[in-house]
Specification:
Chain lengths: 101, 170
Amino acid sequence: MMVTLAHYLALSALLFGIGAVGFLIRRNALIVFMCVELMLNAAGLAFVAASRYRGLLEGQLAIFFVLTVAAAEVAVGLALMVAIFRTKQTTNVDELSGLRG
Amino acid sequence: MGELMAFYLLAGIAVATALAMVITRNAVHSALFLVLNLVVVAVFYLLLGAPFLAMVQIAVYAGAVMVLFLFVIMMLGAERVGGTPGLRGQIPLAVALGAALIAGALFAFLRAPAGLAPAGSPPAPHGDPSAIGARLLTTYALPFEIASILLLIAIVGVVVLARDPRSEGR
């Protein structure tokens, strides 16, 4: 029996689901952010696996751009968290409810 | 056969590290489990014929991005921030919805994999740096340039955001 595209897609779905659950249950904004990275990465695995089993290079190029955007996103997101921490002294997302009516 | 064994072994490590990352209390441990998960995914990239992406994954993601994460966690001293969610029943509901998401995705992916990959698998694409670089600088030159502008914007944005207004003029 060979490793098929379905194997990789199933693993990708599992990792994405774990990341989504973590995003919902964790309260520390930094861990919530890490769960987003986990989900991005699961999607990347699906892209590269599809690229392999269709014999195309495009999936790998798409993930190259996703990696670029993810690096930019992490840098800006962490800078935002540092700025929030400076005024609120916390990174607990339940306490960051300044816009709640 | 060996390939299948390697897949299951690596998949087990990937799922275990992802679960550990979500469950562990300490944010630093969480980040280190995520590093392990990213490295396992890089090994999957190697198995899938994408050596360039695998190296970029380790250098940029597991290296630079996660070091930035660890740096910010330690700088803010936010290792143990958290506790129970404010909404009642949030954890069971989130786990149930996540399980439903996984089940739905598995159903969709495993029902008709033939539609996703053509029968008689084609040869693997050669994802070496020269092939990727050639595509990036010809067919995908415009997205490539846009990505570089995006990175420049991110640099400027981070400097503006992370500047402490109180230290202005010093």
